[in-house]
Fold:
Amino acid sequence: MKVTVENKKGLNKDLKVFIDKETMNSYMDKKYEEIKSSVNLKGFRPGKVPKEILKRQFGKAVFGEVLDKVLKETTTKALEENKIKPAGQPKLDLKTYGEDKDLEYVLSVTELPKVEIKSLEHIKFDEYTVKIDDKEADNRIKEIAKNQPNFKEVSDDTKAKKGDLVSLDYRATVDGKDFKGSEGKNTQLTLGKDLFLKGFDDQLIGVKKDDEKIIEATLPENFPEKELVNKKAKFNCKILSVKQREEVKIDDDFAKNLGAKDLKDLKILISKQINDEYKNSLDQLSKNQILKEIEKIKVDEVPENLVEEEVKVLSQGMSEEEAKKNKKNFEVKAKTRIKTGLILNEFGEKNQIKVTEQEVQAEVQKQLRMMPGQEKMVMDFYQKNPSALASLRGTVYEDKILNLIKEKGKANKKEVSKEEAEKVLKEAHKQDYDHNHDHSHEEEKKDTKNKTPTSSTKEKKPATKKAKSKPVAKKTKKVSKK
Structure:
């Protein structure tokens, strides 16, 4: 195989590839030997069919298979030998080919630009730790205790009031007749929440243990027996008990019920939980700072074919007119995203960062935990959408790269209080809003100058991992994991 590089224009190159006919014939002979043993032709024993007969019978099909195999092997080898990483699918133009002929073709390729990553090892960013005051943990524990149901039975003559827990048996009728679901045993109602039937709770205020009371209530729109919807039902109730809410005592037993060793251990766990809530958000800010620094790294040229593909992604869902109006803005965004993706990819490859199947599945499980009750729907989504799973893999890959950059970079460590953390996050939100607002206003001024009516457009962005925290992550082109 002979390869010559021609027509160099920036990142675009033409590789002329030549394979002599002797080499092509050797591929053909090898293929004929492969099929000889499996061919059954009348008059010939298996494995004894002459090559000339095989050529007449299967020549075109064999050549097609051989050509496909040779093109795949030689294009890969030509790119590797010339150290070319293609940006997108190369184009192939056959010049000479055929049985008992030389093979010559031209491979037109746009290569990925060389990017500088050494400066990533000295990148600067803020790294926050949140110091949680003991009072914060105490307040959180009090909130938990307040929401823990704790009721104590009162004396028989104590009347039920709002907030009490009343247990009762009932039997209901509509127009004097029983209906499906008309009986209830040991039904418990916290008076005032109105969770059973509208107005039912209010009629229980003042009842005592062992009282019997008839309560009237209208059956709701969503009642299973449709013919009874909006009908008035009579509930013959027998009061079993009245319990009043008792303040939960915050002690070691309370802590043990929540899975801690004791109250001291619970405070440590709660402090860590609060810290983690803020740390996730602040870590995202650190990563955003790194991404902004990466954007400053110069890349001489960005492949136009990748820019065109990214612009298509950015303009998805828009009308042709809207897409045309926003094209220049999208091209700038596309180049920034692609440049960032190229730099992250290069850093990932140089540091041999890999994503395992276990890491992808761990990310899926994390999303399942964030959507309780919808686990099956989430699993079905990923099973039916391989591209969504690939995007998730890209997210994990990017996170691993950014975490390694953080390890190698120069962190400006800051310990902040909960209030200071909230202030930092609020300011980050404001900056993000101002940046987007100013950019939109600038585009509006350009449109006015050009006498083009503006319209509100919603940018459709590639799927990214949603942070548990509130800050909006800076969107970048997802790096691919090959």
Q: What stands out?
A: The chain has twelve helices and eleven strands. The longest helix spans residues 263-295. The domain at 150-245 is CATH 3.10.50.40 (Chitinase A; domain 3).
